[in-house]
Amino acid sequence: MRDIKQVTVTIRRESKPWDGSAPSVGVIYDREPVDLETFVIQRQFGAFDAATTDGPEPGRTAFVNATPIRSLDGETTCRLDIHEIDGRAPEADEILDLAELMGVRFAGGHDLERRRFRAADRAFEDADFDGMSVEGTGGWETDGLDRMQRPFFLDSGAACSEAVMFGLEFRPGTAQLAHDPEFEVPARVDRTPIFGWYINLDERGEFYADLRDASGKTVFEIRTPDEEGHDFFEDGYMKHGNDLEGLRDYMLDLKIIPQGAEVLSFSDFEARLEERGPLRETTLELGM
What is the value of pTM for the model shown? Predict the structure, then answer.
């Protein structure tokens, strides 16, 4: 059901005494706005069970109690007219929503499946997926009763989009949701570029290390002293073999790593890779 907040209505009661005296007419609401909760209470009071038209016709459709309310004094009939919804002219689907709230069925029937699909689309569009973007969706499936679901894919930052199921349950015979949609948002994955510093040799004055990206490819390496006896650390780019801050600044200067990248020790690097899971590429095939 759409988010209806206020309904402008007129509700009249006509009581006909059994003794044949003149009927009395009372106006409960005269083109007055009421919130949806009050509207529901009033429809129970009026015992509305029928519509005056075969289908929802804004401006013409009213709701009545086709079976009068009987008492010791006489019988009472009620009529409810809907003038506006949230300060504007009502739409046919909104008349249907309110009819369903009252348990009224139109004589001409209405396409409940179509209305449920439209309600499902609105619920999906309004859902909050923790700021993650939807990468793709599958078609709606129904159990033939009151449940619908669809698969969809969220960009959580992982190597491929995360598959999620979006489920809905409707109140029987209506296009009104029985409760909030059901889905679980996957944990967000950190996409910060990371590089690992592997010290392969550090003894007897010799040092050899390489910098690797997340795929394991070496993007930079140091062997010092080199074949000419030159010591890398004497140039001042790094104070020592574990100076990751100096290494990161040097890599940025050389444009080997992008801005915002992290340079980690090999142990921290491998732990972070383990948290992210294996790199993979996946082609998503979505059914309809």
Answer: 0.45
